[in-house]
Write a structure and sequence with these properties.
The complex is a heterodimer of chains A (214) and B (220). With 214 residues, chain A is α/β, with parallel strands linked by helices. Chain A is built from seven helices and eleven strands. In chain A, a hairpin with a 2-residue loop joins strand 4 and strand 5. The radius of gyration of chain B is 18 Å and the shape is globular. Classes of the chains: A alpha/beta (214), B mainly alpha (220). At the A-B interface, helix 2 and helix 3 of A face helix 1 and helix 4 of B.
């Protein structure tokens, strides 16, 4: 069964065409990578799939629901790691996650598990502003799994993560449906059986371990 | 999900951040004292005209301090990309808006705690519970309007310019009713009860309207 079905997703920023009629189908439990150069439309596509951005045209269904009409209902379902970590610099890692637990409507006990999963237990008391870029990225990943979402949308989560990026991402992706945008083809091959290739906002088709099967 | 819990969590987060960084309140308090100093040198104030001039200076200082306080509420969230993270949760945008408004109002109330005794000190204007009540009532409605416009302009580059242009015209009712209430509380003729009644009406009207608008402003 498909968890994500997107048809003809098109998005314009003013006159600029960022995404041109892209179709995406993701089965439940499937992991799909999105590859493409800078400006290919990866972030735009992922923001639409995460329901953070409304496309100019096209349809999107997540778990059988219209993703734009039922956006708020789907928030429980979707975890999103965006380009910018988006934390409160004066709050500690734990306080940041506890705050998002309240907003997600989940128990604060999830914080400890999430911090342990991403390997931040030792710096949990440190303010977000005192964390390195890689640690902030780990914190963003921890936030995205606080509410145990079934679908994860990860926009270049490997940025600044370091040598164990693939292991960490493998751990959080296990048992979930995932769309992962990255520049790292090796990482995409390792974590995702299928890859969608974008160029200038258009889909070039999907590939299995970079053997294009248009 | 309990919207009150969400609103309180948002307000608490903003207040804890402010307490730890002390970015805004000390600067606002300093601004207020400077505005009063300028007022003190700019006007010939004595015991006879203090009650007529002091309320004007009070509202001027409050309005400009409010613009800074409310302007930062959503601008900071936008700059650190945390607004989207909040909106990507199932929490109600109205609850998030209420929490932001609550925190901004609390910061302005702290500034008012400096402003009101200082106005009494600088101008010798009588300081009473009536003045405090009028200022607090005006703060509620001004906060609701200030925050909704701050949320609207947070997405544009010229937000510092746009915020006063949008907010000031709608703050005029609070300045008129609040000014009248403060003047009568300081001993000038007029109906204090009528002015306070008007402030309460404006508060209800604008809190309801901005809460309804918040969903569309934040969600889209």
């Amino acid at each position: 069964m498909s968890i994500v079905v997107a048809n003809g997703l098109t998005h314009r920023f003013g006159r600029e065409l960022a995404l041109d009629s892209v179709d995406v189908v993701l089965d439940t439990g499937e992991h799909m990578a999105v590859l493409g150069d800078n400006g290919a439309g990866k972030t735009t596509l992922l923001r639409i799939l995460a329901t953070a951005l409304r496309p100019t045209s096209g349809q999107l269904q997540i778990a059988g629901l219209d993703a734009f009409r039922e956006r708020r209902r789907l928030r429980h379902y979707v975890g999103f790691v965006a380009h910018a970590p988006g934390f409160y610099p004066a709050l500690s890692a734990t306080e940041n996650l506890e705050f998002f637990c309240v907003l997600q409507g989940v128990d604060r006990t999830h914080v400890e598990d999430a911090l342990q999963t991403v390997g931040l237990t030792a710096v949990a008391h440190r303010r977000a502003s005192e964390l390195s870029r890689g640690m902030q990225q780990r914190l963003a990943i921890a936030r995205s799994i606080l509410h145990e979402p079934k679908l994860l949308i990860l926009d270049e989560p490997d940025a600044s993560l370091g040598a164990d990026a693939a292991d960490l991402l493998g751990r959080i992706m296990h048992g979930r449906s995932v769309v992962l945008a990255t520049h790292d083809q090796a990482l995409a091959n390792r974590l995702c059986p299928r890859t969608l290739v974008l160029r200038h906002g258009r889909s070039l088709g999907t590939a299995t371990h970079l053997r294009v099967v248009r | 999900m309990n919207p009150f819990r969400v609103a309180l969590a948002v307000a608490r987060k903003d207040l804890v951040s402010e307490w730890r960084t002390r970015e805004m309140v000390p600067a606002l308090a300093q601004f207020i004292v400077l505005a009063l100093l300028i007022g003190n040198f700019g006007f010939q104030i004595d015991a006879r005209n203090a009650a007529s001039i002091a309320p004007g200076i009070l509202w001027l200082a409050l309005v400009f301090a409010g613009l800074v306080a409310f302007g930062r509420t959503f601008a900071a969230e936008k700059e650190q990309a945390s607004l989207e993270a909040m909106l990507m949760t199932p929490a109600s945008p109205v609850a998030i808006f209420a929490g932001k408004g609550l925190a901004a109002s609390a910061m302005l109330v702290v500034c008012e705690a400096v402003l009101l005794p200082a106005i009494s000190l600088f101008f010798g204007a009588p300081f009473s519970a009536g003045v405090v009540l009028a200022v607090l009532l005006a703060t509620i409605g001004m906060a609701a309007l200030g925050c909704i416009f701050a949320a609207i302009v947070a997405r544009v580059r010229a937000r510092e310019l746009l915020l006063p242009l949008l907010t000031l015209p709608l703050w005029i009712p609070f300045i008129v009713a609040g000014g009248q209430a403060v003047q009568t509380a300081m001993g000038l003729p007029g109906s204090y009860d009528q002015a306070i009644g008007l402030l309460i009406d404006f508060d209800i009207l604008f809190v309801v309207l901005t809460s309804l608008a918040a969903r569309f402003v934040l969600d889209e």
